[in-house]
Amino acid sequence: MSSADVLVVGQGIAGTLMARELLRVGLEVLVADPNLLPASSQVASGLVHPIVPRTGGLTWRAAELFPVVQHYYHNIAEETGQFFFHSMPMAFVADTEQDCQHWKRAAEKLGAAWLQWMDELPEMNGRCGAITRQSGRLDMHALCAFYKAKWMTEGRYYHRAVLWDELRYEGGFWHWGRVKARYVVLCQGAHAQGQRPLELLPFHLTQGELLSLRVLTPDAMPSYIVKKKVFSIPLGDGVYRVGSTYDWNNLETAPREVTRETLLQQFRELVPDAGAVEVLAHDAAIRPTVGRRRPFMGPHPEHPQIFICNGWGSKGASLAPLLVPELLACMLRGTPVHPETDAAAYWP
Ligand SMILES: Cc1cc2nc3c(=O)[nH]c(=O)nc-3n(C[C@H](O)[C@H](O)[C@H](O)COP(=O)(O)OP(=O)(O)OC[C@H]3O[C@@H](n4cnc5c(N)ncnc54)[C@H](O)[C@@H]3O)c2cc1C
Hints:
This protein has 348 residues and is an alpha+beta fold. The protein folds into three domains: 162 residues, FAD/NAD(P)-binding domain (3-Layer(bba) Sandwich), CATH 3.50.50.60; 92 residues, no CATH class; 82 residues, D-Amino Acid Oxidase, subunit A, domain 2 (D-Amino Acid Oxidase, Chain A, domain 2, 2-Layer Sandwich), CATH 3.30.9. It has eight helices and 21 strands. The strands form four sheets. Strands 1, 2, 11, 12, 13, 14, 20 and 21 form an eight-stranded mixed sheet that branches. Helix 1 crosses helix 8 and helix 3 packs across helix 8. The longest helix has 19 residues. The chain is globular and about 70 Å long. The structure holds flavin-adenine dinucleotide.
């Protein structure tokens, strides 16, 4: 029988950061994930930036998030000796008069506050827009793989799904086969939709696809992230991550030929001088998105020893370093989670 303080169910970015936080405060933690492919964190481009491109305004809690994000991933680099987060400017380019006005209006609306985050992109070849330096890319896939390998070596990793029917609460512990734990944290991403005990959570899942491209003449490419309809992120050695699409109707995880062509077309519009490219990979996964665009956090209303850590949408890389420690404080000290994230709101 393996006994622990906490069983973490699911090891995408949410489960990884949650398990890491629990271990850091000295708790005994077990992690279970059957690695159902493709998990959102395995595919995500890991972009971190404070801007809502549609409005040109700031993302939710940007002023609290961004000082924490850099610091958080820096701590992980110190702990592991590996850099999973890469700071990099990000330019939102516009090449029509209407789109240029969009960014000018955004700057006027926020005034001095906007200048804390963004600079105007100098007008060049008929292009304008905005650029932020509070941005970067988290290699979520590598981060999760690193901790998976470490926790397997430590004997705390189960390569199996945890199903609700297999869990039983008895004598102050949740029992799962030969494992028992005082608390369970549910971090199954999109796989939780419609599944007990989270069937009341209103996910509004989106499928997303992206490409990895080798640009054969990379001299024409910007050395930072650029975005218009799609983004292009330099990964080094002439390789770029290009994406991503949002599809609310097709929830298949097989990438589609038609999307590949659309992404290639939009990449050429974004970087017209890129020249010939070779497609190295084409990936798809389902984001755990929520209509209200806020994660689901906090204790399960019917099972107070179960905690919910889900609904990260397209922002797991930037939101998790702030919200996972908030969930930890809720577990350890009973501090309420942020009211907009409280999953209990969905229970009658
Ligand atoms: C194309 C695309 C691009 C994206 N780009 C970005 C981006 O630029 N920036 C950003 O921040 N986010 C991005 N995202 C979103 C990001 O991937 C998510 O916010 C985040 O990864 C969600 O993490 P998660 O841990 O909640 O879920 P997941 O990564 O899906 O992990 C859930 C894990 O739970 C496991 N699991 C499921 N059921 C069980 C069970 N019963 N028992 C045990 N384990 C189980 C699964 O195997 C999986 O490993 C993107 C997503 C996609 C698809």
